[in-house]
Write a structure and sequence with these properties.
The protein is of the alpha/beta class and about 325 residues long. The protein is built from 14 helices and 14 strands. The structure holds adenosine-5'-diphosphate and magnesium ion (MG).
Length: about 325
């Protein structure tokens, strides 16, 4: 995979830049601009070297507009909004309307990918968090243009890759919900990690499988269906964490939306302390997990906190993503 930092001069070129500006919006206001801010490094890198950019992003709902994200961004960097692929203005920075407005995106239609590719000379993917989807702007366009990974994309890729060849002892802590979606991760990390904790709402379904017989598996102490991690469980975690060199954590330990935040917060603080002490590297991710860490204001105490949600889980389970494969195939 080639990184955008291999290019020093963009003079006379337009880059089709796929970002993930799928930010939470209420009443037309961006509630959390983190994903937009994450893309600024790549945008400035291209602009500083004389390039023009066509920014492409989705927002989850097909009928929804990317305008609120554009307005937040436009208040920092001058840009033009465009909802017509046939009439892209000549401006240095153009932001295209929600890419899911066009049917060819999700279907990865060849004609649509060709149309998108015809608007630029280069393609850059800075949307790691969307790269588990085989859509036109993720896998179609990079087959048609010289293609590169963006700066934030590389940061996600390099930090999450640490979990695939980690220092040992390596502890994997998995909480949250939806057991079926987490089975591939458990199977993968039983091969890579020294200890695997299965906590949160997935502990009970896990306890009903043959995972219980695996000596690497740790379930909550006491009631596996408890709505939060108890003190005994946190003590076992603390003991194992204290002796480890690398920790990967995804998923809250309790039903935190209903106020059961204590176990998750204690674990977050425990992990941030061991990471800050320099004894272990700690990589964390997951939408809900990130929300808890932000609330505590300790995001910068970890080696890396991924904002890539489902893409992170897929990458960790398989070691790659459709969007990575597409960048590697050129
Ligand atoms: P992430 O988004 O960080 O990957 P998940 O989406 O897998 O995490 O899981 C988050 C959900 O898990 C939350 O809705 C939370 O309430 C639920 N959860 C976590 N632990 C428990 C528990 N012990 N009992 C019930 N629900 C739990
Ligand atoms: Mg979640």
């Amino acid at each position: 995979m080639k990184s955008i930092t291999e290019i020093q001069n963009f003079e006379g070129k337009r880059v089709l830049l796929r970002v993930d500006w799928n930010v939470p919006v209420r009443d037309g206001e961006v509630l959390d601009p983190e994903r937009i801010d994450n893309s600024l490094a790549t945008i400035n890198y291209i602009l500083d070297r004389g390039g023009k950019i066509l920014i492409v992003s989705h927002i989850t709902k097909e009928g929804e507009s990317l305008k609120p994200a554009f307005e937040y961004f436009g208040s920092k960097v001058p840009a033009v909004f465009c909802d017509d692929l046939e009439a892209i203005p000549e401006a240095k920075l153009v932001v295209l309307e929600n890419i899911r407005k066009w049917e060819g995106e999700k279907k990865n239609e060849e004609d649509f990918a060709e149309k998108l590719a015809s608007k630029a000379e280069l393609y850059v993917n800075d949307a790691f968090s969307e790269s588990h989807r085989a859509y036109a702007s993720i896998i179609g366009v990079p087959k048609l243009l010289p293609s590169y990974a963006g700066i934030y994309f590389m940061e996600e890729y390099q930090n999450l890759s640490k979990a695939l060849s980690p220092a040992h002892p390596f502890i994997f802590i998995l909480g949250g919900a939806k057991f079926e979606t987490k089975i591939p991760l458990i199977e993968k990390f039983l091969k890579v990690a020294d200890q695997v904790f299965v906590l949160g709402a997935i502990a009970k379904p896990a306890s009903e499988t043959e995972l219980v017989n695996n000596p690497k598996i740790n379930l909550p102490v006491g009631d596996v269906a408890a709505l939060d991690a108890n003190q005994e469980t946190l003590e076992v975690l603390n003991l194992k964490i204290t002796n480890s060199k690398f920790i990967l954590w995804n998923g809250p330990l309790g039903k935190y939306e209903e106020g059961l935040t204590e176990g998750t917060k204690k674990l977050a603080l425990m992990l941030s302390e061991i990471c800050a002490s320099g004894q272990a590297e700690v990589v964390v991710g997951g939408g809900d997990t990130l929300a808890v860490i932000k609330e505590l204001g300790i995001k910068d105490k970890f080696t890396f906190v991924s904002s890539s949600g489902g893409a992170m889980l897929d990458f960790l389970a398989t070691g790659t993503l459709p969007g990575i494969e597409a960048l590697n195939s050129v």
